[in-house]
Design goal:
Helix content is 7%, strand content 54%. The chain contains 8 helices and 57 strands. Residues 261-338 form the TonB-dependent receptor plug domain.
């Protein structure tokens, strides 16, 4: 026995715990019993004055999972996670008898120890045991937060969308994009499963004593990859509280035949019910009956105004660098705002931090390459991608004589740098640029471009509180360079630029409440357009429309509220505010009269940054989910939103020459409301996913134009703009097969999109002030996407698309006035072009799947519009010999074959 100790007076600076224990044994005669492996590499700083042994040990092991037990005054037994109980809590045997289950963790007057059913445990397969937390006498039975990060054990990359679940409990979670997770579990023993695409199915035993961190490094696998990832999404389909959400991984587009063999997640999106466009060659999307300008398209948090190339045939996103897209068309989370219909949240991959990787393709129209470059092992990486086209040949096969003599080209580039400072801080920076040039006629060269910069900082305050700072800047430009025969050469252009700061925070309060809150501020700079003479001989008069500036901001908060295991709500509130800023001159008109030069009453000038007009209002975001059965749920949602920026177009479909206009004193912001209700069911152990969802939307102050309006370079554009009401409603059905040789989905949507422009003045009234169909109203929309895996290397894929013809305005007669003939047109959008039908097929041929190969490759052979159906894009009318004749224009009236070669290394 050592000497008796009245107190311990010691000071250690960054000293090994093992060294401290050895010093205590030598100085005071204590004897410690422990496994040295538990303390390897652990150092602490501690200073005490006349401390008792128990006080000293409490401080020494406060940040570890170790407990201690005093055998006598001088013998110390160290325990990992556990506590030595000298007596059982009061009432322990009574409660144990009432449960009839020796595995039950009992909460009596104090904490009960964890017991194991050794007989049952020995009958199960051998599992590795992992422990979380430190057992304490007063920490209760939970629930406790188990969290951490899961990485690929070979590459060190985080594993996203991995399902981690406790078997037999219904407790599960899915890792985020950076591999982190959080799971609530009571004290006790669990059999855990980890499932993800490309990762071996992993099982282990987990003993939970208290909240703590569990990081995992898992092994890669090439077995049952598709089954695992699709099962995770099927689970989310039923469990997610939000209505009207879809996720598309970039890899999903690999086995879907698209025009000219290009992988395109945005085109894949249009095969889902509720998302469509006006037709082949049309840019933009119409989501649940909304206009194309009502979609917020984000790339790494920055806005992309035109995400397409080549008249809408290709996405302006590199498929090799794109991780995926989250689509919100029903319940939009409160952190998103500024658009009425939907959010497309597109993310770029983080580069590999451990080895050089790449992917390239050569196709009929484009070539593409992407490289992942490690900058510093486990710390920093860079991913870069570039794509260009040699697409002029495709114009030669288009069924349009004018287009056959045209030319077009495009390219895009993207780079993303990721730097992991430590486990609590990560920086990401993205830069993106795309450029299109095309000439429809010999004398005009059109061009448009997107530019985007994005910087984000992810940081973790503690295990429950995280934040993300975004700073983005994006710009969209359009221009026309005209070089004609006469002295009318000119250069025309406009651009829209926006800069945004956003601070988004997440706080996990407890298992029932998880908060998302933050602040956002955005500055708009719009150059509505200008025209200048090109060359010294041009007689064009310069004209420049005054620039517009505005600021848009928002405060928001959301709460995921778990009322019970069956009932959960997402409760969100966003308050947005907007100010139209000077330097500007606003025009005032006589109230209650149409806007025209005749009703103009005055003008007011505002200095730079002076507020000329402001708007604000609350936006409610509420959704709920109720489990009828574990694989059957019902969801409902209500959503409101303001939109302060408008696209101005008097074309049938969206086009690059559409301009953008900010809300001011004459053009009010749009306001939308949406109600949604749906039923979601999984069948055959998540092999099949079934959903049926209905919605009803109303909107105010949507824009349209007077007949014959001129919107390009119009100094008094408000005199041409009409604002009215809209409504849309529909039912969406989706059946998806997630596993097996045959997989894919069948979608159908019945929907209507209507608008009304009414006024006591005929000049501001359309179709007698009654509701009429929008240009993109397609009541029936059916799509079938299927992929059949013949072998591990060969697969067949197909698309089948059917849509109702969109509305058009036809001439219905003619009349003579003042010795001149005039055409009499029907009500706007009273007729429809023929229905649209298209069938595509594809063959995918992969190389062998040996792991130790320098490269992996595959071929894609596809035929777009295999039936050669002459689907009309538009109908137009000309007068020939005094007669009005109708013609229809098609984009692809013949089958379009393509072949592409892809390689990974």
């Amino acid at each position: 026995m050592g000497q008796q100790v009245n107190g311990i007076t010691k000071k250690y600076e960054n000293t090994s715990i093992i060294t401290i224990i050895e010093d205590l044994e030598e100085t005071y005669g204590y004897r410690f019993y422990f496994n040295p492996v538990w303390l390897e590499g652990r150092k602490v700083s501690i200073e005490t004055t006349n401390a008792s042994l128990t006080d000293f040990l409490e401080r020494l092991f406060s940040n570890t999972e170790l407990n201690y037990y005093l055998q006598d005054a001088n013998q110390v037994i160290l325990l990992r996670n556990n506590i030595v109980y000298t007596e059982l809590p009061n009432g322990f045997f009574k409660e144990l008898q009432s449960t009839g289950n020796s595995n039950t963790v009992v909460k009596a007057e104090s904490v009960a120890p964890i017991f194991y059913d050794f007989e049952n445990t020995q009958q199960t397969e051998s599992l590795e045991t992992m422990r979380v937390g430190k057992s304490k006498a007063d920490n209760g039975n939970g629930p406790f937060t188990v969290q951490g990060k899961i990485i690929n054990g070979k590459t060190g990359e985080p594993i996203a969308d991995l399902v981690l679940r406790a078997k037999g409990t219904g407790k599960r979670t899915i890792t985020s994009g950076n591999g982190t997770y959080s799971l609530l579990l009571n004290k006790g023993t669990y059999e855990m499963e980890a499932l993800a695409m490309g990762i071996q199915d992993t099982k282990f035993r987990l003993i939970v004593y208290d909240s703590g961190v569990l990081d995992l490094a898992l092994n890669e696998s090439l077995e049952q990859l598709d089954e695992v990832i699709l099962e995770a999404e099927a689970i989310k389909n039923v469990e997610d509280v939000n209505t009207g959400t879809n996720q598309i991984n970039s890899e999903e587009s690999k086995n879907i035949p698209l025009v000219l063999g290009e992988r395109d997640i945005l085109k894949v999106a249009t095969t889902l019910p509720g998302i469509s466009n006006a037709g082949e060659g049309a840019s933009g999307f119409n989501v649940r009956g909304g206009k194309t300008d009502q979609n917020l398209i984000l790339l790494d948090d920055g806005v992309v105004y035109n995400p397409t190339h080549f008249f809408g045939f290709f996405q302006a996103l590199n498929p090799f660098t794109t991780e995926g897209v989250d689509i919100y068309k029903g319940s939009i989370p409160p952190q998103f705002g500024g658009r009425l219909s939907s959010v497309f949240d597109i993310t770029t991959k983080d580069g590999n931090m451990n080895e050089l990787k790449g992917e390239a393709s050569i196709g009929a129209v484009t070539s593409n390459i992407a490289l992942e470059v490690p900058i510093k092992k486990d710390k920093a990486s860079l991913i870069v991608g570039g794509r260009t086209t040699y697409s002029d040949w495709i114009l030669k096969v288009v069924d349009d004589e004018q287009l056959k003599n045209s030319e077009a080209s495009f390219y895009d580039m993207i780079a993303k740098y990721t730097h992991k400072i430590n486990d609590n801080h990560t920086l990401r920076g993205s830069a993106y640029y795309s450029k299109d040039k095309f000439s429809i006629t010999n004398d005009s060269l059109y061009n448009y471009s997107n530019r985007l910069f994005s910087l984000s900082w992810d940081h973790k305050f503690n295990e429950k509180h995280t934040g993300k700072v975004h700073v983005t800047n994006s710009q969209y430009q359009f221009g026309i360079d005209y070089d004609g025969q006469a002295n009318t050469d000119f250069n025309l252009g406009y651009d829209v630029t926006e800069t945004e700061f956003k601070y988004d925070l997440n706080y996990f309060h407890n298992k029932d409440h998880s908060f998302n809150y933050g602040i956002a501020a955005k500055l708009y700079d719009i150059n509505p357009g200008g025209i200048d003479p090109a060359g010294n001989e041009s007689q064009v008069t310069p004209l420049h429309i005054p620039k517009e500036r505005a600021i848009e901001g928002a405060l928001y908060i959301g709460d995921t509220y778990n009322v019970s295991p069956k009932l959960s709500f997402n409760l969100g509130l966003r308050y947005s505010f907007y100010a139209f800023l000077g330097e500007t001159t606003t025009r005032e008109y006589a109230p209650g009269l149409p806007l025209s030069d005749a009703t103009l009453t005055g003008e007011t000038e505002y200095d730079k940054n002076e507020v000329a007009q402001s708007y604000n209002g609350p936006e409610v975001r509420v959704s709920g989910r109720y489990f009828i059965q574990p694989d059957l749920s019902i969801k409902a949602g209500f959503n409101t939103a303001y939109q302060y920026i408008h696209s101005l177009s008097n074309n049938t479909t969206v086009s690059p020459i559409d301009t953008w206009k900010l809300s001011d004193n004459n053009i009010e912001p749009q306001l939308g409301y949406q109600y949604s209700l749906g039923v979601y069911k999984n069948l055959k152990e998540n092999e099949y996913e079934l959903s049926l969802e209905g919605y009803y939307k109303t909107s105010e102050n949507i824009t349209d134009f007077k007949t014959g309006a001129n919107i390009l370079l119009n100094e008094t554009i408000e005199q041409e703009v009409l604002q009215g009401d809209g409504k849309a409603y529909g039912v969406e059905f989706l059946l998806r097969k997630n596993r097996g040789r045959l997989n894919g989905w069948l979608g159908y949507a019945y929907s209507r999109s209507l608008q009304k422009f009414d006024s006591e003045f005929s000049v501001e009234r359309i179709n007698n002030g009654e509701f009429f169909a929008t240009n993109y109203d397609k009541p029936h929309d059916f799509s079938l996407v299927a992929n059949y895996k013949v072998t591990n290397r060969y697969s067949l894929s197909t698309n089948l698309i059917y849509q109702s013809g969109r509305p058009v305005t036809y001439p219905v007669g003619s009349y003579r006035f003042n010795n001149a003939d005039y055409v009499l047109y029907s009500n706007r959008n009273e007729f429809r072009i023929p229905n649209y039908f298209r069938w595509d097929i594809g063959l995918n041929i992969e190389g062998n799947h040996r792991i130790k190969k320098l490269t992996h490759s595959f071929w894609t052979i596809s035929v777009y519009n295999v039936l050669g159906r002459n689907n009309p894009y538009s109908v137009f009318f000309v007068t020939e010999d005094g007669e009005i004749k109708a013609y229809q224009s098609s984009i692809f009236a013949i089958p379009v074959p393509s072949i592409s070669y892809n390689i990974k290394f």
